[in-house]
Amino acid sequence: MKTQTTIRVDQRSYTQAKEILSVLGLSYSQAINIFNNMVVSTRGLPFAVKIPNEETIQAMEEAKKLNGDFVTLDNLKR
């Protein structure tokens, strides 16, 4: 039996997710069903949820300043 639900998500990330999932051959609904099944089978979130440390926060702030520009591995080594 299937149930219908309504969720509110950020429009930009929703659109990006749908495009990525399409390349993977999945609909958004199928991906949500996979997520739900993983929550049930792992009895929690199927990935680690952590508060970032100071180093990670600094890296995230630096990434925001790039305004979506791509970063290469060579850029990260500098």
Structural commentary:
With about 80 residues, the chain is mainly α. It has one domain (about 10-75). Helices cover about 55% and strands about 0% of the residues. The radius of gyration is 17 Å and the shape is extended. The chain starts with 10 loop residues before the first helix and ends with a helix. The model has no long low-confidence stretch (mean pLDDT about 90).
Mean pLDDT: 89
Query: Which structural class should the secondary elements be placed in?
Result: mainly alpha
Write down how many β-strands occur, each being a DSSP E stretch of 2 or more residues: 0
Shape: extended
Which regions are unreliable across 5 or more consecutive residues at pLDDT < 50?
A: none
List the helices and strands in order.
HHHH
Domain tally: 1
Instruction: State the end-to-end CA separation.
Output: 54 Å
Number of helices: 4
- Sheet with most strands: none
